[in-house]
């Protein structure tokens, strides 16, 4: 394969727009296809926690999680909830999900793979932000994890595996935490700071700026919803959209949770599911953390953004079409007020913004990055789950390398779509 191909990239989220920038850098002609506004509220890129956590290498499923499934079904407001009505459709995915984390060895394999994908992510994003003229949106000043006790940390498999894959951190006792975070509730008595990590001050604005930079550099943006891919033998001919076909000789499927239909159109029925997520944001908060943090008991990330104090987390398995359960956002708000007692309990509703969206997730916590079976003209880049924003910078580079037939900069076998086919 040579440079100079016409590449159609389906999806203008973080992965899609960075893939467009990197493909353009490789000398390709690029068309970006998405019905929505890049960085708009409809996109997962808009509503994520904003963490650039290069240490987020642990998949959601861990050994013994199967014991918790009945609780997930019974508690619609828990950190992970499964709607009964969607269970029959979700069951094949859930079985693969449980099996992927059945043993520590399987989780460790994913941790090493994700470490390769996420290493140096804050630096990669900072360079992209500088190119797009928004360097102030990316900060590399570490993130904090807080725990009710040292035992909560010591008994966590995830931190043992992070150490194994080379993640380093600084430990804080109760007094040291209080010096750093005086407004944090006293129930948190132990913390760790991962200094290599960073954050994005406005994920939606960041993705929008990257898209504007791509378009200004020569990328064509077509507002349309892609519905399939048309092949002639093993050669890609066009992307099929609701408004007609777009001729091209290479394509990237980076449509997030809506990628499943596209891969199925070329014979790859991949087990992609949506992990529905929520966030709540308080404008002009009276209190909060000095640094970005995750609370282990609430399974929630708290991050300052340019628009307010954002709390994001929870997983809901209920499909693409079900209505949101806004009580889940209320739970996040209550956790946030509990973490920072100086926040008033009667914050006016006008200062509280909520959001709901779709994380595209593969059962084993690893994205699909690689060629379609039917044609090496088609590259898959989706299914990042909880590491979409942080993982998008290197994913875009990998996509450009695959499009140009160059050796990828990290081993892609752990991310190969064929692992599910």
From TrEMBL:
GO terms for cellular component: cytoplasm. InterPro entries: FAD-dep_OxRdtase, FAD/NAD-bd_sf. Keywords: Oxidoreductase. Residues 6-402 form the FAD dependent oxidoreductase domain. The keyword Flavoprotein does not apply. It holds the Pfam family DAO. GO terms for molecular function: oxidoreductase activity. This is D-amino-acid dehydrogenase.
């Amino acid at each position: 394969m040579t440079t100079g191909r016409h590449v159609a990239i389906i999806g203008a989220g973080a992965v899609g727009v960075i893939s467009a920038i990197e493909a353009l850098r490789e000398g390709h002609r690029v068309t970006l296809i998405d019905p929505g506004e890049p960085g708009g509220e409809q996109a997962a890129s808009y509503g994520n926690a904003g963490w650039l956590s290069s240490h987020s290498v642990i998949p959601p499923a861990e050994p013994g999680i199967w014991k918790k499934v009945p609780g997930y079904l019974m508690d619609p407001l828990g950190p992970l909830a499964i709607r009964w009505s969607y269970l029959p459709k979700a069951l094949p995915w859930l079985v693969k999900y449980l099996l992927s984390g059945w043993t520590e060895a399987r989780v460790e394999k994913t941790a090493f793979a994700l470490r390769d994908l996420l290493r140096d992510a804050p630096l990669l994003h900072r360079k992209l932000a500088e190119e797009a003229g928004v360097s102030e949106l990316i900060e590399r000043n570490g993130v904090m994890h807080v725990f009710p006790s040292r035992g909560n940390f010591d008994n966590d498999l995830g931190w043992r595996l992070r150490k194994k894959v080379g993640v380093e951190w600084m430990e804080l006792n109760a007094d040291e935490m209080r010096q750093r975070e005086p407004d944090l509730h006293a129930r948190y008595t132990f913390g760790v700071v991962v200094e290599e990590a960073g954050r994005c001050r406005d994920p939606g604005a960041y993705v929008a700026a990257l898209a504007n930079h791509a378009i200004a550099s020569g990328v064509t943006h077509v507002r349309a919803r892609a519905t399939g891919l048309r092949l002639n033998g093993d050669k890609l001919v066009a992307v099929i959209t609701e408004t007609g076909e777009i001729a091209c000789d290479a394509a990237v499927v980076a449509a997030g949770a809506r990628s499943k239909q596209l891969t199925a159109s070329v014979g790859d029925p991949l087990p992609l599911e949506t992990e529905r997520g929520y966030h709540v944001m308080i404008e002009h908060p009276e209190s909060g953390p000095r640094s970005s943090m995750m609370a282990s008991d609430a399974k929630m990330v708290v991050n300052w953004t340019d628009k307010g104090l954002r709390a994001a987390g929870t997983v809901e398995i209920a499909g693409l079409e079900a209505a949101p359960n806004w009580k889940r956002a209320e739970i996040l708000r209550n956790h946030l007020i509990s973490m920072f007692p100086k926040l008033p309990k009667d914050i006016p509703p006008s200062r509280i913004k909520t959001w709901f969206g779709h994380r595209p997730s593969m059962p084993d916590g690893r994205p699909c990055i690689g060629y379609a079976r039917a044609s090496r003209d088609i590259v898959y880049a989706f299914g990042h789950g909880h590491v979409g924003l942080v993982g998008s910078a290197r994913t875009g580079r990998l996509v450009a390398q695959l499009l140009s037939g160059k050796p990828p900069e990290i081993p892609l076998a752990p991310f190969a779509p064929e692992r599910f086919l």
